[in-house]
Design brief:
Blueprint lengths: L66 H5 L19 H8 L5 H22 L3 E2 L5 E2 L3 H29 L4 H8 L16 H33 L6 H26 L2 E4 L4 E4 L4 H42 L4
Antiparallel strand pairs: 1-2, 3-4
C-alpha cells in the first residue's frame, strides 16, 4: 500500500471534494490530503503520464513536481516520530520501523568488551616489575594475549553499531562504515621503519596529507551526513560543520608532520649525519584541538541518533501491539 494514498475518512471527518459528500457537510479542497511536494490528488478521469511507472492508486505528479523533491521521500526502515499533531502513523510505516534492530545493543556490547579488555590487561600487567638491569619480569603473557581478540571483538561491535544506524535510516551499509573506520592517515606510512631514508619519509608524509583529505571528502563526509539523516536530526548544516572540523583538524596534523619531514634540522658529525623533526607547534595544536572537538561532537551525534532510533523502534512495536486490528 502506498502510504500517500488518500484513505477513506472515518465517520464525521471531512471528505475531499473528489469524493461523495455526506449530507450537510462542507466540501474540502482537493489539496487537503497530505501529499509529498509536487504531488496532487488523483482527480476522477485523469490518467497517468505516458510511460509512467506509478502503481494504481498512487498520486500523480502535479504542478511543481521535481525528482529532487520526491527523493526526500525514499523509503527508510526507521521513521522518526512525527509528534502527536501528525496523527497516528500508517500501519505499514509502523511495521517497517518495528522490524528494525536497535543499535543500542551493539553499542553496549562494544563498551562492555572494551571494559573487559582493560580488566584483562590490568590483571596481566599487575605483577610486572622492571629490574635494575632493565629486564622486565613478571606478568601473565597468556592473559595479555587474550586482550588481542577482545580488542578485535570490541572493534567489530562498534562497526556493527554504526552500520546498524545506517541500515535503520536507509542511508548506508557496512561497506561505508568499514571504509570510514580505516586509519587512512597512517596508511602511507605502512612498511616504513626507523631505517627508512629521509626522502622516503618525505614522500610518505606528503602523500598522507592528500590521502587524509581524500578519505574525509569521499568516505567520512558521506558517513557523517548519513548518520545525521538517519536520525532525522534538525539543522543539517551542523553535519556539514562537523565534517569540516574533522577535515581541518586531520589536515593540520598531517600537514604539520609533512612540514617537519620537509624541513628537518640537520646534525652532522665526523661519523654520521642525523636529522631531528620539529613540527610547527601552533599548527599541530590547532589540529589536535579541532580533532578533539570533532570527535566529541561525532560521539554525541552517534549517541543521539542511537537513542532516537531505539525509542522509535520500540515505540512502533508498542503502537502495533495496542493498535486495533484491521
Amino acid at each position: 500500500m502506498n502510504p500517500y494514498d488518500p484513505q477513506p475518512p472515518a465517520d464525521g471527518e471531512p471528505r475531499p471534494a473528489s469524493w461523495p459528500q455526506a449530507p450537510g457537510t462542507t466540501p474540502v479542497p482537493p489539496s487537503s490530503p497530505a501529499y509529498p511536494p509536487g504531488f496532487s490528488s488523483y482527480p476522477p478521469g485523469s490518467s497517468y503520464p505516458p510511460g509512467s511507472s506509478y502503481p494504481p492508486g498512487s498520486p500523480v505528479p502535479g504542478p511543481g513536481y521535481s525528482p529532487a523533491a520526491v527523493g526526500s521521500y525514499a523509503p527508510s526502515l526507521f521513521v522518526a516520530p512525527a509528534g502527536p499533531s501528525a496523527g497516528p502513523a500508517p500501519a505499514s510505516r509502523l511495521r517497517s520501523t518495528a522490524r528494525g534492530t536497535s543499535p543500542l545493543w551493539y553499542l553496549l556490547s562494544g563498551i562492555g568488551t572494551f571494559l573487559l579488555t582493560f580488566v584483562v590487561l590490568f590483571s596481566a600487567l599487575d605483577s610486572v616489575s622492571i629490574e635494575d638491569d632493565g629486564v622486565i619480569d613478571g606478568g601473565d603473557a597468556g592473559l595479555a594475549l587474550l586482550a588481542i581478540p577482545l580488542v578485535i571483538a570490541a572493534l567489530v561491535l562498534l562497526f556493527l553499531w554504526v552500520r546498524q544506524i545506517g541500515l535503520n535510516g536507509g542511508q548506508f551499509g557496512g561497506g561505508l562504515a568499514f571504509m570510514a573506520m580505516l586509519p587512512w592517515e597512517n596508511l602511507p606510512f605502512l612498511g616504513s621503519s626507523t631505517t627508512s631514508s629521509l626522502g622516503d619519509m618525505q614522500v610518505r608524509s606528503v602523500a598522507a596529507v592528500f590521502v587524509t583529505v581524500g578519505a574525509i571528502l569521499l568516505i567520512r563526509r558521506p558517513l557523517i551526513v548519513g548518520v545525521w539523516r538517519a536520525g532525522h536530526l534538525p539543522a543539517p548544516v551542523l553535519a556539514e560543520l562537523l565534517w569540516v572540523a574533522t577535515l581541518l583538524g586531520s589536515t593540520f596534523i598531517a600537514g604539520a608532520k609533512a612540514e617537519a619531514y620537509l624541513n628537518p634540522v640537520k646534525h652532522t658529525t665526523a661519523y654520521y649525519t642525523s636529522y631531528t623533526l620539529h613540527p610547527n607547534g601552533t599548527v599541530l595544536a590547532i589540529g589536535v584541538i579541532l580533532t578533539l572537538i570533532a570527535v566529541a561532537a561525532w560521539l554525541i551525534t552517534l549517541l543521539t541518533v542511537t537513542i532516537i532510533q531505539h525509542v522509535g523502534i520500540y515505540d512502533a512495536r508498542r503502537q502495533l501491539r495496542t493498535r486495533p486490528a484491521g
